[in-house]
Amino acid sequence: MAPKKEMKCSFCGRGAAEVDQLIVASTPGVYICDECVEVCVDMVAGGTTGDSALKTANTKLAVNGLTIDTIPTPREMKTFLDQYVIGQDTAKVTICVAAYNHYKRLISRGNVADDVEIEKSNVLLLGPTGTGKTLLAQSLARLLDVPFTIVDATVFTEAGYVGEDVENMLVRLLAAADYDVEKAQRGIIYIDEFDKIGRKGGANPSITRDVSGEGVQQALLKILEGTEAHVPPKGGRKHPEQKLVPINTRDILFVCGGAFVGLNEIIEKRTSRGGMGFTSDVVTKNSQEEDNLLSLCEPEDIVHFGVIPELVGRIPAITALKHLDAETLLRILTEPKNALVRQYKKLFEMEDVALTFAEDALREVVAVAEVKRTGARGLRNVVENALTHVMFDIPSYDDVTEVIITKEVITHKAEPKLVRG
Hints:
The protein is of the alpha/beta class. It has 17 helices and 12 strands. Strands 4-5-8-3-9 form a 5-stranded parallel β-sheet, with helices on both faces. The longest helix is centred in the N-terminal third of the chain and has 20 residues, at 89-108.
C-alpha cells in the first residue's frame, strides 16, 4: 500500500489530508473519498446516467460549489479591477487570465473522464515602486472573495537562520482565512520585493553563505509548485512537541512582485541595443524607454538577474507595469473607488466639514509626487503633509463648514481657507 501522504481520490484528486475518509479499492492504487461516494449515491438516487450524470458529478466535485458558471470571466475581472487600479491594462489582462485559468484548473480536477492535468499559472509583476502591483493582487482577491495575504520576501531566510521561514507565509494566509484550512488552500499570496531574493552576484553563486537569496529560492520551489506543508498554527519556529497544521499549496495562487532594478540593462544587452567601450553612448533612459525594455522581458532575463531557473519555471505568467505619468497620477487621485481625495473627504465629513481641492492644487500634488519618484505612494505623502495641521485643528472648531485647498497650500506658501458658518 502506498504511504498515506501519496493516497489520493481517483475521482476528485483530493489527498488523504483533505477528506474525512479514503476508501481503498480492490485494484492497487485506486481510492475514492467519502465526498465522491455521496455524489455517486445522489446520482443513483436521482436516476441520472451517462453524460448528464458525469457532468453533474463534475460540477459537484469541482471546488465546494465553484463551477465554470460562477467564476467571473477575465473581462468581468478586469472591469472590477478598473474601479481600483488606473491604467496598467496589459498587467490586468495577464493577471485576470491567470486567475481565471487557475480556478478552471481546480474545477477540471473533478472531471473523472479527463486525464489532462492543468499546471498552475503563478504570476510575476515587474515594475517600479508605486505602480499598483500590490493593489492589483489585493483587488483581485477582493473580487474572488478568497483569503489574501501580503508577505515581504526580504524577511525570509533559510531554515535554521535568524529570520522567518518561507512556510510562515502559509501561517499568515491561514490567519486571513480565520484558520479554515480548506478556505486557505484556495487563497492568494502576494510576495512583495521578490527581486530582493536574487542570488548575490547574479548568475554566479556567491562564495559566502547567501541565507536570504538562493537558499530562500530553493525553499520556495515546492511551495509555489504545490506541496503539503506542515506549519505551526500561530507561526514562529517549529519544535518537536508542537501540533502542526497541514496545508496543501497546490491550489494557492502566488503573485510575485518586484521593481527588479537593473533588469532593463540585462534586457538591453540581450536585445543588442547597447554598445560597449568608447563607442557606447552614455544616456539616461526616460520612463517610456524603461517601460519598453521591461515589456520585452523573457524568463532568461529573470534568470540572469539572479533567480534560479527552477523557480522561474514555476512562474509562467510574467508581465510588466508601466511608470505612471502625470495624467495617470491625477486620475489616481480622484477616480478610483478608494481614491485618495475621496478618503480625505471622508475623514473631514466625519467632522461635518466639506473638503474641497482646487484643480491647480491637485496638479501641484502630482508635480511634487513626480519629483519623489515613488509612484502613487508619493501622492499620499504630499497630501498628508499639506493637511496635517488643518486636520489637527478642525476637531477643535465647531463653526467650520468647509476647508478649501489651493496650490499654495500644497507648496506650504499659504494656509487652507476655512469657511465658517
